[in-house]
Design a protein that fits this description.
The protein is an alpha+beta fold. It has two domains: 174 residues, no CATH class; 113 residues, no CATH class. It has five helices and 20 strands. The protein starts with 5 loop residues before the first helix and ends with a strand. The relative contact order is 0.10.
């Protein structure tokens, strides 16, 4: 336009630049609102708090109520361990039929399995006029019940916890991997695991305690000691308090000796809150000289006698008590 003045051209350029700036600002605000303040970002912040072991932040973000349960899993290393290895595969924001609400679905891999969790959020206001404020809808944290037939403690996600009367209930965040186990010098329970994916879920981890090789070896040594003491009683066909003996109508001349030829195999198992030994079975050999009372003929006495007895086992800390029960 030849008639267009320089002033008009300048105004036109300025207005165009202003409109482009406003449009760019709108786009930036929209992107920031979606990426920094959107519901998906709030879920990301929550997952990060779990991975950081920051239970206070996670609880505040999730807007969750703690049930009447032990809180050992809700902070620190135990919480950090619950999401160790968490791999987020995707986060999807889904609008609901209710305005200003959103369901955020998180797909992830945890404990070598693919799972998904859904978080419900609602818009509760704005920040600095332009940015939406999203808040998790209130939930109650799920529970984990851990039980062990013969133990009053366990290790839960690396934290030692008490199991009064053999069980306890623990509050937990979600998603989380819960691992329970127990090991000591004399007893152990192989690890039991499970994944909590939503607030309505629950886990029941039952530990199956068993004797360690160290306990079996210690009890085996006590059994050997008891039987060796019995065999050491000289010139007795029936050593007092011992599970083996020999009956005969012949006269037996000393020396009378006993030898354990087959020691029992020790098997320890839990039962009714105690540890019990399976019947102890073995073989002992008696050696002496015997005289037939009718003919007066002497002959060697060499006989192997099978025996069986029970024993009461008590373990307190590092102390082991074994009491033979001989009929």
């Amino acid at each position: 336009m030849q008639g267009t003045s320089p002033v008009i051209k300048a105004v036109t350029i300025w207005l165009t630049a202003l409109m482009l700036t406003i449009a760019a600002a709108v786009v930036v605000i929209w992107l920031v609102n979606a990426k920094v303040y959107g519901p998906g970002k709030q879920v990301e912040n929550y997952l990060q708090a779990l991975q950081d072991g920051n239970g206070a932040q996670a609880l505040g973000l999730l807007n969750a109520e703690i049930p009447d349960a032990n809180a050992a899993l809700l902070d620190g290393d135990a919480l950090r361990s619950s999401t160790a290895g968490l791999e987020v595969l995707g986060i999807e924001e889904n609008e609901t039929s209710v305005d200003d609400r959103s369901d955020v679905v998180v797909r992830y891999r945890l404990d070598d399995a693919e799972e998904q969790s859904t978080f419900q959020l609602e818009k509760t206001g704005t920040r600095w006029m332009f940015f939406d404020q999203w808040t998790f809808r209130p939930v109650t944290l799920p529970n984990v019940r851990v039980s062990a037939a013969n133990q009053n403690e366990a290790v839960l996600n690396g934290a030692r916890v008490a199991l009064p009367e053999g069980s306890n209930t623990f509050a937990a965040f979600y998603p989380s991997r819960i691992a329970a186990s127990y090991t000591s010098g004399y007893f152990e329970a192989p690890e039991q695991t499970g994944v909590l994916a939503d607030p309505s879920g629950s886990l029941d981890l039952a530990l199956r305690s068993q004797a360690t090789p160290a306990l079996v070896e210690a009890v085996d040594a006590r059994v050997h000691e008891f039987l060796d003491n019995c065999a050491g009683e000289q010139n007795r066909l029936a050593p007092a308090g011992c599970p083996f003996y020999h009956l005969t109508d012949n006269r037996v001349e000393p020396p009378i000796t006993w030898e354990i030829t087959n020691y029992p195999t020790v098997e320890i198992s839990p039962a009714d809150g105690h540890w019990v030994l399976a019947p102890l079975e073995g073989t002992a050999k008696v050696t002496a000289t015997q005289t037939d009372l009718f003919s007066g003929v002497q002959s060697p006495l060499v006989e192997e006698k099978e025996f069986s007895f029970g024993a009461r086992l008590s373990v307190s800390g590092e102390n082991i008590s074994l009491t033979a029960v001989v009929d």
